[in-house]
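Sequence, please.
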């Protein structure tokens, strides 16, 4: 059996049937036990009392076992504390990472919003320079006058209406007058066709009369 260092430096008396010997260091007593010069029924004086070497060994083993269990419990507690610290640090790192990700997402949204507003302002300024006012009322008026008074005005309404509709489709002209522009465009086509037919008929009649 092994003893703590403090016990190893102690001197113990032993006795057998009332005959005392010693004092001996614990290493000497252990050697005597191994060589069978003394037995486990020999008594040893420790802590102000006599007890058999068997009981002494049992107490020593129990003391060492209790110390070992206490050490293991302490080590287990330290491991648990380290694991808890690692888990806490991991959660803190994850929380900070989520905060950084959320902040980055908000910054990206803010930057995109600012960029979008600038693009809209630029586009609006550009459109303000190239968008022209609708001429729907003028085209419709020319078409009606051409239909009833002066035929060439139908051709003018047709050409202007076609051009303005293309400009509206490309975004270069206001679309608020699309209906009147479309109406003038169609009337211009109709009037042009009617007058063209009338001219052809007149020409045919003149040729026939000759």
């Amino acid at each position: 059996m092994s003893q703590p260092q403090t016990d190893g430096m102690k001197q113990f008396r032993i006795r057998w049937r009332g005959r005392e010997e010693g004092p001996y260091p614990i290493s000497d007593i252990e050697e005597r036990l191994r060589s069978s010069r003394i037995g486990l029924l020999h008594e040893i004086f420790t802590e102000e009392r006599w007890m058999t070497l068997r009981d002494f060994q049992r107490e020593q083993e129990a003391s060492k076992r209790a110390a070992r269990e206490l050490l293991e419990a302490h080590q287990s507690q330290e491991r648990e504390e380290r694991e808890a610290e690692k888990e806490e640090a991991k959660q803190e790192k994850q929380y900070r990472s989520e905060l950084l990700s959320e902040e980055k997402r908000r910054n990206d949204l803010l930057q995109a919003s600012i960029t979008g507003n600038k693009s809209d302002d630029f586009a609006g300024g550009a459109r303000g320079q190239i968008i022209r006012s609708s001429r729907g009322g003028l085209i419709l008026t020319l078409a009606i006058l051409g239909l009833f008074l002066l035929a060439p005005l139908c051709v003018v309404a047709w050409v202007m209406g076609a051009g303005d509709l293309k400009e509206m489709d490309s975004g270069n002209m206001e679309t608020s007058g699309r209906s009147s522009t479309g109406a003038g465009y169609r009337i211009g086509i109709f009037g042009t066709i009617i007058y063209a037919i009338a001219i052809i008929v007149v020409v045919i009649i003149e040729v026939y009369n000759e």
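Confidence is low (pLDDT under 50) at residues 1-5, 124-129.
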